């Protein structure tokens, strides 16, 4: 049986190596540490947490908590180490970051199937099965090789607009229509504003507090086209945004019969239409400020934000064009990607992609069919989102209930609704575990 290469010993890479090893597959795990570190890394331990020490909510009726429970049930190394390194954090799972990294490193070092090799990999291996899990700060030479292979389908600067759940949009203040009647009439959901509403919104937008940008986020950034933050655009004048992403031309508000003063357009983020993207609203505002300011738009006054806008350095693939739902390349099923480079956003989301890439690389090595978890599971829904070719302007996504199929009998209470999602997910997971022996 062949040895599998895993490149990158962060959360996704270590999880992938563990899942391969427990299935009897020999692993060569490559990482530049301790010989070389990115600007964000300081310790020699593997799986270093470079930002927060929190893995977000732990309760199973939350999206983040459900993801972690699914991982526990799939025997995740990262969840073992996180649970045993936990520190008090209310309803969240937070860890002693040094203890967490040390435990993961010890697992890897003591695993007889895993050989750790301190070496910077500069190009995608041409032979054998490989999992690439080099994270958002992939070193320049490997980034260059990936870019040569995939062209503009590798991005270097993450400038994402917020996403809201469709069910939270006030449809009394919104209407479906494409400009000048083009398209099928439901391509865009329009959120109109009158002059007074727009001026209140504009005033809040230009005075809102922005997020701090890390030094390593802005080192030689390649800003993706059309990604100027909405708050920066607004600083150019009161009408700049109204003549830009909020231009009302070609639209009539059915409530008034007239063209609105300004319009925010929302576009479907997924095939099911459960999530909508705020078109042209890339932003670097703090998350709380995004909620406050964008909720001033009447149709979004009660909006549930499934993902806030971000702007920072983040090497990630245009995965819907490149990857299958098992995290393998469409053009070469022996090469898998895992972690934030695939477009999953968050510590445990990255680890979950490594878990599935590891399982599937093992399947590939053993000549078996790869595994895609049910769409009702959070892990399965994430893998389907990053490989959904109906997603046109792809941006990273974290765990949220908006990517799951809608419930047949949907509770109105948020906690009960979350529990219903969790019950359905975990039932589906246990069923496929029995069928496919994972």
Would you mind describing this structure in some detail?
With 438 residues, the protein is of the alpha/beta class. It has 2 domains: 4-156 and 315-436, FAD/NAD(P)-binding domain (3-Layer(bba) Sandwich), CATH 3.50.50; 163-308, Beta Barrel (Elongation Factor Tu (Ef-tu), domain 3), CATH 2.40.30. It has 12 helices and 16 strands. The strands form 4 sheets. A 6-stranded antiparallel β-sheet has the order 10-11-12-13-9-14. A 5-stranded parallel β-sheet has the order 6-2-1-7-16, covered by helices on one side. Strands 3-5-4 form a 3-stranded antiparallel β-sheet. Strand 4 (86-87) and strand 5 form a beta hairpin. Helix 2 runs parallel beside helix 12 and helix 3 crosses helix 4. The protein is globular. The model is unreliable at 215-226 (pLDDT under 50).
Strand order of the largest sheet: 10-11-12-13-9-14
Report the CATH superfamily of the largest domain: FAD/NAD(P)-binding domain
Q: Which regions have little confidence, pLDDT < 50, spanning 5+ residues?
A: 215-226
Helix content: 25-40%
Quaternary structure annotation: single chain
Structural class: alpha/beta
Tell me the number of strands. Answer: 16
Binned strand content: 15-25%
- Determine Rg (CA atoms, Å): 22 Å
What sequence of helices (H) and strands (E) makes up the elements?
EHEEHHEEHEEHEEEEHHEEHEEHEHHH
| Overall average residue pLDDT | 88
What do we call the CATH topology of the largest domain? FAD/NAD(P)-binding domain
Distance between the termini: 19 Å
Q: How does the overall form come out from the CA principal axes?
A: globular
Specify the number of helices: 12
CATH class of the largest domain: Alpha Beta
Biggest pleated sheet:
6 strands, antiparallel
